[in-house]
Design a protein that fits this description.
Blueprint lengths: L13 E9 L4 E3 H5 L6 H8 L3 E3 L7 H16 L8 E5 L10 H9 L5 E5 L5 H15 L4 E9 L9 H4 L4 E10 L12 E4 L7 E4 L4 E4 L1 H22 L9 E4 L4 H13 L7 E2 L3 H4 L6 H11 L8 E8 L3 E8 L2
Parallel strand pairs: 4-5, 4-6, 11-12, 11-13
Antiparallel strand pairs: 1-7, 2-3, 6-7, 8-14, 9-10, 13-14
Helix pairs in contact: 3-4, 7-8
Length: about 325
């Protein structure tokens, strides 16, 4: 008879130890876009809430932004590259599927021989990756995981299509995930996730021009009716109530969608003073990068503090969605 296998000893739970982000320097305003397509600052603000967005230059890659955001998250966590054994990059905008972004990002940061893989759940990608990293730490499969959402959506846009070119932008956000240490230090709740594959054609890449397409009104109706219940499920799985949430950080898809989700949560008991991320106004929709970008920006502005209870909600192409409660590091 062969020997009995053993499993590694995991942690009681996981928590975020540090965060960081990166954005291109070039700011594209609504007036800039109005010179290229039939639109206006008023039209864009009214429909999606965006005033400006960051667009990377031709030489900047998804990996470049991931490296910068990941390095800042490591520094914020007080860790070194040698402390990281797993790297997950959530992205849907690599120029080719091979090689993946994660291994390249890890190598450039100086992380030696980690488990490294990309995860594509589009705009829900960061929440998917964070849930995966948390479970790896709890299972004992990882000690410290670097989770990055990074996108260069500008490479996948038809710049003559005003329904998409006004919305999407570039950037990266990252978090370091490690063991909670004890039950009272748990900082990442269970993930509530799912998909609606029957609606996959609502957001897709058109094969004829390799450009992003979305059925805007259909996506808006889906997000404003189906996503709040996912967020409420995440709160329930964490053993909390809506009144326990200090800050709501949904995917920055559209300011009207963000406001709708917040309104629905308040109707279920969330506090009126619950702070709500509105990073889309100045960053645009950066897909998997939008949640960590918003978190990092809110913390820099003093709108989020260490110890705050945050509700993260990602949703987008797939259609995929995911939500979890986390504690701000």
């Amino acid at each position: 008879m062969s020997g009995r296998m053993t499993l590694p000893s995991g942690a009681a739970g996981a928590r975020i130890l540090g965060i960081g982000s990166s954005q291109p320097n070039t700011i594209v305003t609504n007036d800039d876009l109005a010179e290229r397509v039939e639109t206006s600052d008023e039209w864009i603000r009214d429909r999606v809430g965006i005033a400006e967005r960051r667009i990377a230059d031709a030489d900047t890659t998804v990996v470049d932004m991931a490296v910068e955001a990941g390095g800042r998250a490591l520094k914020d966590a007080g860790l070194t590259p040698s402390d990281i054994d797993t790297v997950i990059v959530a992205t849907c905008t690599m120029p080719s599927p091979i090689p993946n972004a994660a291994a390249q990002t890890a190598d450039r940061i100086g992380i030696s021989a980690p488990g490294a893989f990309d995860l594509n759940a589009a705009c829900a990608g960061f929440s998917y990756a964070l849930g995966t990293a948390s479970d790896l730490v709890r299972a004992g499969s990882a000690r410290h995981a670097l989770v990055i959402g990074a996108e260069k959506l500008s490479d996948w846009l038809d710049w003559q299509d005003r329904s998409t070119c006004i919305i999407f932008a570039d950037g990266a956000g990252a978090a370091v995930v490690g063991a909670a240490g004890s039950d009272d230090r748990i900082g990442i709740g269970p993930v509530a996730w799912g998909s609606a594959g029957d609606l996959n054609q609502m957001i897709r890449i058109r094969t004829e021009n390799n450009a992003l397409f979305q059925e805007g009104q259909a996506v808006f109706r889906w997000a404003t009716t189906k996503i709040a219940p996912v967020a409420l499920r995440a709160i329930e799985l964490a053993g909390l109530t809506p009144a326990d949430i200090d800050v709501l950080i949904p995917h920055q898809a559209n300011l009207r969608i963000v406001d709708s989700i917040a309104k629905r949560l308040r109707s279920k008991g969330a506090r009126e003073d619950m702070r709500v991320a509105d990073d889309i106004v100045h960053s645009g929709n950066t897909s998997s990068a939008s949640i960590p970008l918003a978190l990092d920006h809110m913390r820099a502005e003093g709108r989020v503090c260490s110890g705050d209870t945050l509700l993260l909600v990602g949703f987008g192409a797939g259609l995929s969605y995911a939500s979890q409660v986390v504690v701000c590091p």
